[in-house]
Amino acid sequence: MSAFNVVFGCVMALLIILFTISSIARYYIKFTLFIVLSLIFASVPLPLMFFRPFSPKNALIPAYFLRLTARFLGIRWTVQGLENVDDSRGAVVLLNHQSSLDLYVLAVLWPLMERCTVVAKRSLQYSVPFGTATWMWGTVFIDRGAQSARSVLNKQTDAIKCHKRKLLLFPEGTRHGGDKLLPFRKGAFHVALNAEAPIQPVVVSKYHFLDSDRHRFGSGEIIITILPLIETKGLTKDDIDALVETTQAKMQEEFTNTSAETYSRLSLKSN
């Protein structure tokens, strides 16, 4: 046992030294902690989830601990626009997609928006036990391919319309760290029209503290902005293109503004 303690102590000391002096080591250590802690906090409450299977409320416990993890890794956040949340009806919630760290954004939103249901790729469902946990809190899994994905999403119409669910999607379809949002896919907008539900844009400022190309993962702040609802009642499929364009323009404007704000704060802190 004493030999184990010595080896463990040496390994920990080495990790601490590398974390302190190397930005690349810090990047990998932080992401490893993010993955391991996310798996633990999502999986440990799994037995409790069987008492109310597929309920969005099952995500509240993992979300609480994930928020603590974010603080531990040096990620802070400010939420704007809470007055725009309407829990009396369902909605299609659209978020920009930057990194796997978006999981922290979801952890912030879950207690702020009732009955949230996240849309994720089917492959996540088979990553046991994390995938099992996400399944138990009502995640909607979709396969690759526009037609199959649209078919699954269309089945959520009743959940949005009758059960007042909020369906959370990343309309860009893939994550990126650029200054411009990628073109939005139309699936989410078709669902909103079919359910006659409003669209709730949510914009997350750029992760200036994260640079995957240079393997840098520092500390920093993000601004999560919940924009006013965009109504779809009375619109038809002929209005889809205009609706997509309007939504993306509003989200891009907010993304540019809040990203500039967090960058300015980061620069002042550095100086």
The third-level CATH topology is Glycerol-3-phosphate (1)-acyltransferase
Share of residues in helices: 40-55%
Number of individual domains: 1
Total of helices: 10
CATH class: Alpha Beta
What is the overall pLDDT average?
Answer: 85
**What is the structural class?**
alpha/beta
End-to-end Cα distance = 47 Å
Strand/helix succession? HHHHEEHEHEHHEHEEEEH
Share in β-strands: 15-25%
Large-scale geometry: globular
Tell me how many strands there are.
9
Question: How would you characterize the largest beta sheet?
Answer: 7 strands, mixed
Task: Name the strands of the widest sheet in spatial order.
Answer: 1-9-6-2-5-3-4
CATH homologous superfamily heading: Glycerol-3-phosphate (1)-acyltransferase
Which architecture would the CATH scheme give at its second level? Answer: 3-Layer(aba) Sandwich
- From the alpha carbons, calculate the radius of gyration and give it in angstroms: 20 Å
Low-confidence stretches: none
Structural commentary:
The protein is of the alpha/beta class. It has one domain (3-270): Glycerol-3-phosphate (1)-acyltransferase (3-Layer(aba) Sandwich), CATH 3.40.1130. The chain contains ten helices and nine strands. It has helices spanning 2-21, 23-43, 46-49, 60-72, 102-109, 130-136, 146-154, 157-161, 187-195, 240-270; strands at residues 75-80, 91-95, 116-121, 140-142, 166-169, 199-204, 210-211, 216-217, 220-226. The strands form two sheets. The protein has a seven-stranded mixed β-sheet with strand order 1-9-6-2-5-3-4. A two-stranded antiparallel ribbon has the order 7-8. Helix 1 packs across helix 2 (23-43) and helix 2 (23-43) packs across helix 6. The termini are far apart. The model has no long low-confidence stretch (mean pLDDT 85).
